[in-house]
Specification:
Its EC number is 5.3.1.23. The chain has 2 domains: 3-132, Up-down Bundle (Four Helix Bundle (Hemerythrin (Met), subunit A)), CATH 1.20.120.420; 139-347, 3-Layer(aba) Sandwich (Rossmann fold). Helix content is 38%, strand content 18%. The chain has helices spanning 47-55, 62-78, 83-91, 98-113, 119-152, 177-186, 203-214, 227-232, 258-267, 299-302, 341-347, and strands at residues 3-6, 16-19, 26-30, 40-44, 158-162, 190-196, 219-222, 238-241, 245-247, 252-255, 272-275, 281-282, 318-321, 328-331, 334-336. The strands form 3 sheets. Strands 7-6-5-8-11-14-15 form a 7-stranded mixed β-sheet, with helices on both faces. The radius of gyration is 19 Å and the shape is globular. Bound molecules: 5-S-methyl-1-O-phosphono-5-thio-D-ribulose. 5-S-methyl-1-O-phosphono-5-thio-D-ribulose binds next to helix 2 and strand 10.
């Protein structure tokens, strides 16, 4: 793992940045495992430190994993490490979010195509380009998402339920689903953000609530298993979530607990909307069953709540929502609704 340093107070959220001090380039990432109690950054001067940061979820969330992968290749190149080996290590650090392998591949391709003396700079330039593209994708998704909501749920003043964390902590910009929520809030159209705590690693209570509180949003936290009763009470106008990998047929892998929300939303006729950049769409994966779902340590569950010594836990990091339960997929290139393989392929032009 890299070294920890204290972050300046009240600084804008910056999940990751490239720095070039005299002793060599480095990638500085906000350690998301320590939020919201501590705002500390991790300094990664080698790929092993970055891979450890990805594995521990200090750096997490699909778009940010893509940026970390690309900058990781640039770091290996700038520091004179074996870039091919570094790229492999990075791409395998987590299996489900396709953005990670995508970001690695983008920087690696730029590195391979450049003249040797320019290859490191080419990899860094590509990482920066991906970073800027992610920021503008997030703006475009927010605009499409707000428009879609106004069509699906007339009247404004939305009560939105979200799961996991999809804001500036996972993006070069305002994020995916949370980017839409932020736009609603700025327009005075967010009546309430319902934040699932998101067991077992609590990305909702630790990270989304942190971002919502910083932005002054009207938000309420709930235990994941309280969501059903919110629908029964008619308190949810729409569900907005992100994605880690969207298969060619529209099946969507996202944080475990997303699929049950989609089932309940359908039962209650509430729109269930996935917001994700096209970098999260993997047309090479035909369907949901073909998506590799990361299985994480049993201790992440057993450490959270008392259980008899030796208890083993089932701990998939993600689940897969079939396309027929998804009202719409919002990308930077437009909205896919109804969700069909043809319509999805068309926005991935
Ligand atoms: O395990 P994590 O915290 O990396 O999982 C993140 C999610 O599931 C997010 O919902 C997803 O990456 C979309 S982020 C825009």
């Amino acid at each position: 793992m890299g070294d920890h340093v204290k972050r300046p107070e009240n600084a804008a959220i910056s999940a990751l940045r490239w720095e070039e001090p005299p002793d060599g380039p480095m990638l500085v990432v906000l350690d998301q495992t320590r939020l919201p109690l501590e705002e500390v950054e991790l300094v990664c001067t080698d790929v092993q430190a970055l891979v450890a940061a990805i594995g521990s979820l200090a750096v997490r969330g699909a778009p940010l994993l893509g940026l970390a992968g690309a900058y990781g290749v640039a770091l290996a190149a700038a520091r004179g490490y074996d870039v091919e080996e570094a790229a492999e290590l990075l791409a395998r650090a987590r299996p489900t979010a396709v953005n990670l392998a995508y970001g690695v591949q983008r920087a690696l391709t730029a590195y391979r195509r450049a003249e040797p003396e320019e290859a490191a700079l080419a990899a860094l330039a590509e990482a920066r380009t991906l970073h800027a593209q992610d920021a503008s994708a997030s703006e475009a998704m927010a605009a499409h998402g707000v428009r879609l909501l106004s069509e699906l749920v007339p009247g404004g003043g939305y009560r939105v339920l979200t799961h996991c964390n999809t804001g500036a902590l996972v993006s070069g910009g305002q994020g995916t689903a949370f980017g839409v929520v932020s736009s609603l809030h700025r327009a005075g159209e967010l009546r309430r953000l319902w934040v699932d705590e998101t067991r077992p690693l609590l990305q909702g209570s630790r990270l989304t609530a942190y971002e919502a509180a910083r932005a002054g949003m009207p938000y309420t936290l709930l235990a994941d298993n309280a969501a059903g009763s919110l629908f029964t009470a008619g308190e949810v106008d729409a569900v907005l979530v992100g994605a880690d990998r969207i298969a060619a047929d529209g099946a969507t892998a996202n944080k475990v607990g997303t699929y049950p929300l989609a089932v309940v939303a359908r039962y209650h006729h509430v729109p269930f909307i996935v917001v994700a950049p096209t970098t999260t769409v993997d047309l090479a994966t035909p369907d949901g069953a073909s998506i590799e779902v990361e299985q994480r340590a049993s201790s992440e569950v057993t450490d959270l709540a008392p259980s008899p010594l030796g208890t083993q836990a089932y701990n998939p990091a993600f689940d897969v929502t079939p396309p027929e339960l998804i009202t719409a997929i919002v990308t930077e290139n437009g909205v896919v609704s109804p969700v069909t393989a043809q319509a999805l392929a068309a926005v991935c032009r």
